[in-house]
Predict the 3D structure of the following.
Amino acid sequence: MLFTSPLPFDDALEELDAKGLMPTGLSSAEIRKEWSAELRRRSIFSARNGSARYLQATREAVGKLARGEANLATVRAELGDLLEEIGYRPEEHERGTLQDHSSFKRLNLLLETETRKVLNEGYRAKWEDPGTRRSFPAWELVRIYSRRVPRGYKMDNGALVPLGYDDWPSRWKRAGGAFYGGRMVAPVDAEVWGRLGSSELFDDGLDNPFPPFAFNSGFGLQAVDRRAAIALGVIGKDEVPGAPVGVVSLPPTPRTVKDEGVLKELKKSLDRDLKKWDSGELMDEELRRAAGGGQ
Amino acid sequence: MSGTLKLEVKIDGKVVQELVGSITGIDLVVVHKRQAEQAGEMTRTYLTAVSNGRHATAQRLGAAPTGFWGRAAESVNWQASASEAVVGVSGPGVGRAFHDVDILPGPGKKYLTIPVHGAAYGVRARELARRIPLVLLGSGKGAKKARVIGMEVDGRKQVIAMYVMVPKVHQKQDRTLMPSDEAYYAAGLAGLRDYVEEELSK
């Protein structure tokens, strides 16, 4: 089987391999102050970690997770083994905290954040194609990873209580996003995607125009197809958005099927066949099946 | 752990060939790309719903979900050629959607450790052992010997079971872990329609 071009996702995995290792004694806050967003994006680093060997192992662990070659528990245990091997011992007052490189909190945060960055940077790069942007002109910000206590909530006597701030709809609004039927949707080239992760707006922002937008975030992107985007009012009937921030658009290609009549006939036939798909009934059935199937 | 690391769903080019094969100027690579996009996005949406909806084991143990299905959703990738569209999903055990899976111990190991306590869910026994004192207990004889890894409490006056050790786990196929064939067929047609509309817009 021949593929005409390398996959953007494969490119993202290659970029992971090309990232520079940046051992550093700086804290997270100092790194965000001193290093540009671009430098952070192009590097593998962990705040206050000066071990190049550990960073290399982190890169390999992230690659395994991104490729689905191992699960989180396995790669986290391997990093824990390495820390023990190189003689790492946390300060007693930091043991078990985010400052402790061997804690579950720290390792999970590092692995989940870096893996999601790789996967989402690759995903987003697919919108270099104007045809892709035509078919899927918008993204919706949705929960991908469930949380026992979502951002913007707290547990009180066993019940989840909203804090009234810092949840994702509040952040979306603060970043300039509009709501469509209560949904956080925007065209793929909208500014909100660049602002949602801004550390100037949010202390825990990661300064990337792709998920995760903040530390420990379980939210991510879901593509919205053209019919849905038009029905919601996110784009106009003939509108095709530009490329997302930081993605270089491929040039448009000319029409290759000259017989317009045959295309219109084919479209009519497909519209008839896709009634259940277009009405949303098929996806509703699928999503019920997804949520409620056996284990 | 055994099991498919990468699942590939192929949309057979023959359906497209029957519908459009005789139309002059059709670019099959682009047709398949649009089909792959529709099928890929549908798969991603579906796995996101699995990620948000299925936590029976974690809930039973009072543990946090591991994020496995969320990562599978974000790992969905797709590619196209002149002959087919392919959607790939990565993750240990995702193949369970299409066949039974036998989970076996890793190289050099005889047993799997199955968590039976919330603190052990999603955590390797050797990781947990770095944090709390664990002991290996066994009862019974021969092939029926039960092996348990437990946490010592109060100088071993009490042991709380954290893992059960088993030689393998057999998981039956669960086709609901991935979208239905009907959905993939529809996605393939939707992708073809995207191509047609794209051509008409030029």
